[in-house]
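Dear Dr. H.,

I hope your travels went smoothly. While you were away I took the liberty of generating a structure for the chain from your last submission, since the lab meeting agenda had it listed for discussion. I wanted you to have the full record in hand beforehand rather than looking at slides cold. The sequence, exactly as received, is reproduced here:
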Amino acid sequence: MKQRVIKVIKITLLLMFVFISYCFINKKTGIYIPCIFYKITGYRCPGCGITHMLFNLLNFKIADAFSDNYLAFIYLPFIIGYYIYEIYLYVWNKKDKVFIKIPDYVWKILIVITITYGY
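The corresponding predicted structure, in token form, is as follows:
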């Protein structure tokens, strides 16, 4: 179990480092990941505004974060909860690997909600 905890901590710290590095680079340069769909069509996709939403959350601007992308804002607690749940199962030896497969019905629900959001 100790090895699994260390592995989870390493992965989590790596993810945090990548995200914080991305935030730092964007804050200093003002360069964000562009949305190809928006550049081609002029319409916002379901992913537009996620970077700004995350930055606003880091600065505790909850209302601004919600207005940037309310779908991702609503999804975020579920994504974090699922990550914690998978880590729990992995650490306590109930699973051999983390994130083996998300059930199909979850994907179907998320796709329907995301497509509906796009309209």
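Two observations you may find useful: Residues 2-118 form one domain. The two ends are 46 Å apart (CA to CA).

With kind regards,
E. W.
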